[in-house]
């Protein structure tokens, strides 16, 4: 992780300065609060000095000597007003600061959300979803807590130390010098301890992100873990990450916790010196007893802010690590937003061409080399081949999830690199093997393909996808809410709903990652009928898993290691008795067995 620098904190300030009116108001009230706080020992000192003088006069037998209640009443009234103003400024400064921080964190979360939408697919391929989620939630919460709990307290601590020293120098510069020595000593100790603990706070944030990522993946695949009896392995992996988090968390907290006792030790030594020398000066008539009391109390007023800073050290350092992680995410390289050379017309034919396309995820290991393909509008192209052949990569390139290294992909003669990604993707509909639905009503999930679709269009799309009858059997029909895991409907029904969603979008080009391998024969027939209906009149790319479903494709591409090694219609490829023939016959042999 990169070293945290001043620039990072200035970037955080840019979120706060939008609300600088309330922010400055909070700071101003904090300054007043510190002034009211530092006046307390001085005011009490006046009362103690007066009482001491009155008692001394009474002991000496001075005529008319007694307690000066009128003077003391004025002092107590001033003290009460001071306390009232102190509490009021404290209340409103906190209220303003909480408002500022919450608004700033709202803006930060909004920027993170917008950033995630601009990141390339490759970022999500390389990073755990749980760790990304941790940055957007846990790390932002850590920053918010630190700002709300610590910012004003640190400012108040700095002001408290400053004003207390001023008052001490006003009363006795000699005794004040003791505190001048104490504060740098405490600062040097704190700085050294902070330097030792900071790497562990960064490690704590890192392993917390890993733990979130692992838990998210484990819960997603919990049934698979149970199926293969991998509970122990999963538990051991969790334990390994948890132990690392525990080790870094303990060391971070323990080392940062050393500040408080060390600072308290320095303060107590200073208190002893101030008390002893103060009493000696009072006995010599160089100071009043009230001022001695005030000086002793100012020692604790200096100690209290230093203790506050040390106690907040863990929160501050944790927030510092979180700030760095959040801005690291905001600094990630985005998808290149090139200048738009062309715009696709509203109605396209749907011709697609791959011209000398080469691509690799890793520059050292080329995947697709000099790939060429011409697809006419309305044709169905099936893509088959073993795992790792490049089938899904072709779709990623077609959708511009990744850009080609060389060559071009064209839609109706327009190079997709000269179009915006949004323009390219708006021409496609997708039905994937992993059906994705979100927590909403069935009509809302279908309408996701066209947000302004009418109820009639939703029903028509569901009918075309052979799912209308099933929806009608549900208690609430189209208003039935699909739960977060979409576990209250079957896999086949989810696939039919995604087909309806693609149908209502009415795209010119379709991408179908055939999704019939995990359903029964009856649902397979319904899905196949729905897919044929949606493919009618559209250019379609089908990633085929069951080769029996692509016999009627206009063109079958047989891929291996990123290259088209065979192409043609089903019967023609079988007659060649090549790679496709081997795939086809072996699949039917396996199914027969």
- List segments where confidence is low: pLDDT < 50 over at least 5 consecutive residues: none
Cα-to-Cα separation, first versus last residue = 54 Å
Taking all Cα atoms into account, the compactness measure Rg is 36 Å
Please state how the strands of the largest beta sheet are arranged side by side.
6-7-8-3-9-10
Protein name: Abc transporter
InterPro entries: AAA+_ATPase (IPR003593), ABC1_TM_dom (IPR011527), ABC1_TM_sf (IPR036640), ABC_transporter-like_ATP-bd (IPR003439), ABC_transporter-like_CS (IPR017871), P-loop_NTPase (IPR027417), Type_1_exporter (IPR039421)
Subcellular location: Cell membrane
Keywords: ATP-binding, Cell membrane, Membrane, Nucleotide-binding, Transmembrane, Transmembrane helix, Transport
